Amino acid sequence: MSDLIILGTDTDVGKTTFALLWMSAFADRYEYWKPVETGPSDSEQVRQLVPKAIVHPPCERFEAAVAPPLAAQMEGKRCRGMFGVIRAKPAPTALDRRLLVESFGSPFSPLDERCLQHMLLRALGSCRVLISSSRLGAVGRTVQCLAALRGQGLQTRAVVLLGPADEYAAQEIQRHSETQVFSLRAPESYDAEAIRQCATAQRQDLVALELHLGFALASEDHTPLADPIAKDQLARDASVIWHPYTPLAGADRPLVCSAARDEFLSLADGRHVIDAISSWWTILHGHCHPPLMNALASNAEYIDHVHFAGVTHYWPIRLAEWLLRAFPWKGGRVFYSDNGSTAVEVALKMAYQFWCHQGEPQRTRFVGFDHGYHGDTFGAMAVSRDPLFFGRFEPLLLQADILPIDPDRLDDHLSKYRDQVAGIIIEPLVQGAGGMRMHTPQTLRAIAEVTQRHDVLFIADEVMTGSGRTGTLWAHQAAGIMPDLVCAAKTLAGGVLPLAATLVSPRVVKAFETADRSKTFFHGHSFTAHPLACAVACANAELLDRPETLAKPQAMATFWTETVEPLRFQARVKDVRIRGSIAAVELDVEGGYLADVGRTIRLKALEMGVLLRPLGSVLYAMPPYCTSSESLQKIADAMHAAVKTATL
Ligand SMILES: Cc1ncc(COP(=O)(O)O)c(C=O)c1O
Predict the structure, then answer these.
(1) How many whole angstroms separate alpha carbon 329 and alpha carbon 335?
(2) Closest atom of ligand 1 to CA, residue 433
(3) Going by DSSP bridges, is the β-strand pair 437-438/430-431 parallel, antiparallel, or unpaired?
């Protein structure tokens, strides 16, 4: 059930007075919660003056009567922020009761160091009442606040003018803001009896207000169209946007996301859902992770983008040093680009040019593997060769042979074509987009040995598996192998900004170390080595250097084993695969990537507050490292429910 959220045009306009009257009239149906309190306790006042009210304790309480972040700072603490408050939201004691949630100050008061309270108010619910004092200036104050709220996409269902009745103000506010206005008078004094009498005397007005709110309060309609702002954005989106991997006709409406924090996405219709796929595997520690956002904000004060040909800057150098530190190479280099496909494109071009420099330009073939995916640019498509995604472009693709992940088959192939093959490319341990298919470190090692024996370059595409996703910093490290080229992207800057890198081994670098300008690697993107992305990536690197960071995907693997692995015994479950932060369940259904079951799974999980995006019949989770144990449990529950629904 929807909660009722009390907003005020300012501090001290009568929010708590309204709460006292409301709780006195409707203590049988509402329970009071003021999540964030500073100064004298309103929760305590409600408890004392409306003894029959159920009062939930605040989740943030600071003594000084100033803005919460400042009050927290004065006590040497930090505010827990929007999602911390959301997580702490109490459940009413019975199913037929709602919370009356009182906000602090104004909706535009600071909630923590980064966000204003309105972001929290949006996430808490969509039935909002704005309290305004009827003293002089009521019209301007109220209309201004309503307009500002609307500008942030927050609708207000009603205004309550508190104080001596002012017909004129009520009329004008209603006329200029198209919001229903109710008038209530404050009690003569603040004692339990006066509150009770005041509420009883105005019961008719309070009931009228409740009836007016009734539609919103009763509404459990959380489809993306429930909120007018969401509806407006969807209509505009539908006429101008072309979304990735989405047909232009017949697709489900997108979710309208208005904010993201930790493992949560906040939707414009008031829902907040768990981003269980880390926004296409990019978000590593959680959305808006403070150390990364701080690195972005502090560096954005003095640099934006500066090109990288003939110019250098601090952060890309520092990041490259960190990236290369994980390899026992001496003389390796980092070539920056801006997404996974371009990192792969760079690796393929470099590998071919390497052989050209060795006097072997006939090495025009590459080897990829069944179910491999390396991106959507032409080179990346050629080594992925998925018939559904890329079959149409087959006549345009460079030569690549796609083999099963089998060292013997690779050995046979390279024995035959060794002198024509520039390199092999593989996603180490986990093939992501191909259905979270996994192979063992032993198999990977055997593949590397065969490649080395035939003197062919080994490209590790760690675009998805990097940054500890599989439990080690780089997935290939689990096999103790040494690739010639490594592609990184997605999580490189923690998912905050686009950034990619191709790590190049000394052997390949050496072939380019010549003053012969015709042998230059002629490749570069406008946003190569974006300074801000590199600054954020360095903050990310610092986090990855801490043992507790990599302990998180390892702990997730244990959790998945306990909670998701048992799905293996469910009817029509073909396989369960777990590695590090990744848990995948493959269903035994027809239809491959286009299987209808994907949609069923997605909708079921969403209903349970979890965002999943199955790869056809493969349902998987790969949440950010910050995901709390409660959220992990919700993801596991959603996976169970989705499998059940999909296999009925
Ligand atoms: C292993 C792998 N390589 C490359 C890519 C392409 O990355 P991007 O989407 O950033 O171009 C992906 C994307 O999913 C991937 O999983």
Answers:
(1) 15
(2) 16
(3) antiparallel
The series of mean pLDDT values per 10 residues for the chain, 648 residues long, is 89 96 94 97 97 97 96 92 87 89 96 89 86 96 95 90 96 93 96 96 88 62 56 89 94 88 81 92 94 92 95 97 93 97 98 98 98 97 90 95 98 96 98 97 98 98 98 97 98 98 98 96 97 98 97 98 97 96 94 78 94 95 94 96 91
Give dist(CA 502, CA 309) in Å, integer: 16
Catalytic annotation, pick one of 373, 484, 604, 634: 373
Ligand 1 centre to CA of 491 (Å) is 11
Is 373 among the catalytic positions? yes
Which among 277, 282, 338, 341 is the best mutation to test ligand 1's pocket, defined by most ligand atoms within 8 Å of the CB? Answer: 341
**Which residues have a Cβ under 8 Å from the Cβ of 515 and sit 6 or more positions away?**
none
281 CA: nearest ligand 1 atom: 14
Q: Which of 243, 371, 374 most suits a substitution to test ligand 1, by most atoms within 8 Å of the C-beta?
A: 374
Q: What is the pLDDT of residue 219?
A: 47
What is the phi/psi pair of residue 159, to 5°? -115, 140
**3-state DSSP helix/strand/coil percent for the chain, to nearest 5?**
45, 20, 40
Nearest to 337 by CA among 349, 329, 326, 325: 349
Pick the CATH number of 290-545 from 1.10.1510.10, 3.40.640.10, 3.40.50.150, 3.40.30.10: 3.40.640.10
Going from the Cα of 489 to the center of ligand 1, the distance in angstroms, rounded, reads 8
Residue 146, helix vs strand vs coil: helix
- Distance of alpha carbon 108 from the chain centroid: 24
Angle made by CA atoms 457, 461, 464, in degrees to the nearest 5: 170
516 is catalytic: no
pLDDT at 216: 52
Protein residues whose CB sits closer than 6 Å to any atom of ligand 1:
339-341, 344, 373-375, 427, 432-433, 461, 463-464, 489
Distance of alpha carbon 123 from alpha carbon 86, whole angstroms:
8
> Residue 217's pLDDT is what?
54
Q: Which of 221, 237, 245, 314 is catalytic?
A: 245
Among residues 490, 552, 604, 634, the one annotated as catalytic is 490
Is 349 annotated as catalytic? no
Q: Is 89 among the catalytic positions? A: no
Q: Which fold has domain 229-288+547-648?
A: Aspartate Aminotransferase, domain 1 (3.90.1150)
For the domain with range 4-218, which CATH number is right: 3.30.310.250, 3.40.50.300, 3.40.50.720, 3.40.190.10? Answer: 3.40.50.300
Atom from ligand 1 closest to the CA of residue 490: 10
Q: Which two tokens stand for residue 113?
A: 């160091």
In this structure, the residue with its CA closest to atom 4 of ligand 1 is 374
| pTM (two decimals) | 0.75
